[in-house]
Amino acid sequence: MTQPTFRPETRDKLKHVSTATLATLLFKRGLRNQYIQDVHPLGRKAENMVGPAFTLRYIPAREDLNELTVFRDPDHPQRKAVEMAPEGAVMVFDSRKDARAASAGSILVTRLMMRGVVGIVTDGGFRDSPEIAEMDIHAYHNRPSAPTNLTLHQALDINAPIGCGDVAVWPGDIMVGDGEGVIVIPRAIVDEVADEATEMTVFEDFVLEKVRDGATIIGLYPPTREESQQAFADWRKQNGR
Fold first, then answer.
1. What is the enclosing helix (H) or strand (E) of 169?
2. Closest Cα partner for 172 from 82, 92, 116?
């Protein structure tokens, strides 16, 4: 299954900007609810998670339909979704913000990693979380959760619009995760947002350096004074930014 593509340079740019910067730029565009709530990173990674969303929706489990034997079915939606998620994607689980049972565990996450999936996000929890934290895949959840997903979650819809941490996620939306959390960027604007975020990051690096040197933020952030704008232009030239 293919996912919507975006410019390779866009992916590279988003690997090096913060979710805070992206949230500000989305706010400027009228998008004020794109940061997934109560979801935290497992482990530390050198670069951001960036990839198009591939989704799985859980509904509350019904006991007569959610016995352990359902996993023998190769078409079980959870198992099937793991085998369908494309290389470069981010697997996003709608677990209804319920971390009392796991969204997935280390075996399924390992399979996703081996298939080239770059990240996993749930507004619930993962079991085997210490092992997942050590894997070469980005992972975000609410908190650790040992019980099997069948305890409370029944997998249903694959790659359909979902809610995750109070944010609407459409398949193909671009997921960006850093050391703080995860933000969702609509695919139609991701290239322009990445370009602007890169520029904004350079400016904020300049501002931080000036503030550390004792400068006031008045007239500097934002740069309302002409001398601040000129100082930034000079700093950028000197630093090759």
1. strand 167-169
2. 92
